[in-house]
Write a structure and sequence with these properties.
Distance between the termini: 9 Å
Number of helices: 14
Largest sheet: 4 strands, mixed
Shape: globular
Oligomer: single chain
Bound molecules: ligand EPZ
Radius of gyration: 22 Å
Number of strands: 23
Length: 458
């Protein structure tokens, strides 16, 4: 059994999915209302931040996704007492942080990149940290060199082991000047979680400023931190000796919201996404309108619907915030297969994030991937060596097929394609989707989709 299927089965089991394969009967517009809760890409980091406090934290808006279970397991392995007094709420008590056995960390880590963010908090709490080899979606090499360079700059000793790394900081961590080669989300979080209790001040240049980063900074400030966000991607962190627990409600999951919006377009449907907010989706909404998608910002969410006429082709460049997010391109590509003309999507953040298009072509789409990207005159984002581009020619009717989920966002795009397609599709490895999409089967049911869960593969 390959590692992806193993990950998928474990992920499916963590959230009680009951099966790892779906049979979808497509061709029916998705209509109705669903709710999105806290962002996977903030909630998991907020849970790690609780390790830095000297009293319990309470996090609200926690989605029932398997990545949350992975981080919970890792924190409990380090002695954090976690409770869920009600659905969507976690209390995290770090009063008794202990070193965890490597095997235990490994057992939990497998499919996630989050363990790398334990470095700073564990170095502050224990003076050392073991970090296993990281997992996460296979959408590029995903090195951690920026993380390790930043930790070394803050005074950590980094020792590579066969199956991970061992870090120590016998004299604690000390503020430093750090400039990131690329505004990496993970490396910015690394510096925030490590420098916040270091001696002295850290200046971080070329930092990521995604909404999830701002929400993490809000949490750290609630804990007692002094962090200022200055113009031109500079973040200044004045280290403090101790932090207390926080009470916080997580920012909504804009990636999940954008995914359901794309599903409304691709299935000619009408979906209201409760909990979605305009501010964090500005760039997405502009592209959605350029394609012809309709939306209405409501008091408690955003309604998305198909215009009932031909969709228009667009050119999209993925980018760091406030640009078009790389996690939005997969679901939107499915919608663009139904646009009247040629669309181009330039992926500038990851070097290998078009694998999911093979299955879409099996379902009748016409997508050509240019592995070295395409030079285009009307570029807004500076060209990156690693980028690729996809040329999508539409509209092409989609038909059912048997496909295997390759990664989280690619998997959701396969769901959308199967729902938009005529006939029946079988999608396996759907456990991967449960890593970042809360209760997606219940939501599909709410929106009128027709499908069955097929028993788990042996
Ligand atoms: C976070 O990944 C998100 N994951 C990703 O979402 C998201 O796509 C990404 O940020 C960009 O917004 C989580 O928050 C768990 P990066 P992260 O560091 O932090 C290179 C999803 O679908 N890089 O900003 O891993 C890297 O290879 C996931 O929810 C280095 O070269 O992303 C990539 O090309 C997928 N060296 C680029 O920077 C480093 O040390 C951006 O990566 C670190 C990163």
């Amino acid at each position: 059994m390959n590692s992806l299927t193993k990950d998928s089965l474990m992920s499916a089991a963590r959230v009680g999915l009951g099966g790892d394969t779906l049979r979808i009967h497509g061709g029916k517009p998705l209509t109705g209302r669903i709710e999105v809760r806290g962002a996977k890409n903030l909630v998991t980091k907020a849970m790690v931040a609780a390790l830095l406090g000297d009293s319990p934290s309470t996090l609200k808006g926690v989605p029932e996704i398997s990545d949350v279970h992975v981080v919970r397991g890792l924190l409990e392995a380090h002695g954090v007492v976690i409770d869920s007094p009600e659905p969507g709420v976690l209390t995290l008590d770090p009063s008794n942080v202990v070193s965890a056995h490597f095997a235990e960390i490994n057992a939990h880590a497998g499919s996630s990149r989050i363990p790398i963010l334990f470095c700073g908090p564990l170095l502050h709490q224990l003076g050392e940290a073991f970090i296993p080899d990281l997992g996460g979606c296979k959408i590029g090499d995903r090195p951690i060199d920026f993380h390790l360079d930043a930790l070394r700059a803050l005074g950590a000793n980094v020792k590579k082991l066969d199956d991970g790394i061992h870090l120590t900081a016998p004299d604690g961590l000390t503020g430093a000047h750090i400039e990131l080669p690329f505004p990496s989300v993970g490396a910015t979080e690394q510096v925030l979680l490590s420098a916040v209790r270091a001696r002295g001040t850290t200046e971080l240049k070329n930092a990521a400023i995604e909404p999830e980063i701002m929400d993490l900074i809000a949490i750290l400030q609630k804990m007692g931190a002094i962090i200022s966000v200055e113009p031109n991607r500079v973040i200044v962190i004045e280290g403090v000796e101790k932090l207390r627990g926080y009470l916080h409600t997580a920012i909504f999951d804009r990636n999940e919201a954008a995914s359901w919006a794309a599903a409304a377009l691709a299935t000619r449907g009408d979906i209201t996404v409760g909990g979605a907010e305009q501010q964090e989706l500005m760039t997405f909404l502009n592209v959605y309108r350029k394609v012809g998608g309709e939306f209405e910002v409501l008091e408690d969410g955003i309604r998305f619907w198909h215009p009932g006429c031909a969709l228009k082709p667009v050119q999209v460049e993925t980018d760091v915030h406030p640009g078009f997010m790389t996690d939005w391109q997969q679901p939107m590509v499915v919608a663009l297969t139904q646009a009247d003309g040629v669309s181009v999507v330039h992926e500038t953040v990851y070097e290998n994030r078009f694998g999911f298009t093979e299955a879409l072509n099996e379902m009748g789409a016409d997508i050509v991937v240019h592995k070295d990207g395409i030079a285009s005159i009307t570029r807004r984002v500076p060209r990156r060596k690693l980028e690729q581009a996809a040329v999508i020619t539409g509209p092409t009717p989609l038909h059912g097929a048997d496909v295997r989920v390759p990664d989280l966002r690619g998997g959701f795009s396969h769901l959308i394609a199967a729902l938009a397609a005529s006939g029946t599709s079988t999608i396996s490895n759907v456990g991967i989707i449960a890593r970042g999409y809360e209760l997606f089967l219940d939501k599909l049911q709410q929106l009128g989709a027709e499908f069955e869960v097929v028993a788990t593969e042996a």
